[in-house]
Amino acid sequence: MSRPDHMDVAAYALGVLDAQDTERFEEHLATCWACAAELETMVPVVGLLSDIDGETMSALEHTQTDPALLDRTLVAVRAHRRRSRVRQLLATAAAVVVLGGLTGIGFNTVIDDANPPSVVAEPTLPAPAPPTDSTGGGPTGPGVGGNEAEGDQYDATDPSTGVQTTMFLAQKEFGTRINFSLRKLPGPRTCRLVVIRKNATTEVISTWSVPDEGYGTNTQPQGLELSAATAAKVGDIKQIQVQSVDGNGVASPLVTVGL
């Protein structure tokens, strides 16, 4: 351009720049927020000039109106026709900035995903999960294992370990669903839920880990709530036992529920 880019805002708004200067200024406008903001303030003023139609202009021309003023007005009207083009350009420039901000957010998300925070291992449940039964209604009581309490309730406290449990056993077509909660369970340790049938066979139906603070303790008052299932019918079960398993795989009972 023949003069600094920042000086061409008014000339551009009024449409007095030639084609070459117009193109160069629009390239400058795409990266200069100062000029874009100044141009935006001029748009309403130029818009007012658009209300003057061709007939009015012709009438003015046939009067003793200053010819120079008439020429400037005609130029302003023509500039108004470019207003939609200017607004589109401003919107494009704003979109570029917004996209840049979103890209930064996306980059941070990728970084966070690449370094996920450490979490305590959650209890593992057997697969496949038992189907949901929407017909049965159990006794009143707290929900455990993420499900509403259903079935017969059994409470037990081991006199040696002090571990407490509440279990709800519900008869299902696939076998038995067991919702249970544990309290006074110290950690760290690995635990498992074992079904002992009346025919003396056993089945491990769930395993989980207990963090250092345990569950239902002074350090961690919140108890542990889990849900599991077995193919055994309720009438075939003699006992359900929560066991602690050491590093050598040796299990010892923590609390036992007798049916």
From TrEMBL:
Residues 118-159 are annotated as: Disordered. Keywords: Membrane, Metal-binding, Transcription, Transcription regulation, Transmembrane, Transmembrane helix, Zinc, Zinc-finger. Pfam families: zf-HC2. Coiled coil: none annotated. GO terms for molecular function: zinc ion binding. Residues 10-35 form the Putative zinc-finger domain. This is Putative zinc-finger. Residues 135-148 have a biased composition (Gly residues). The chain crosses the membrane at residues 89-111.
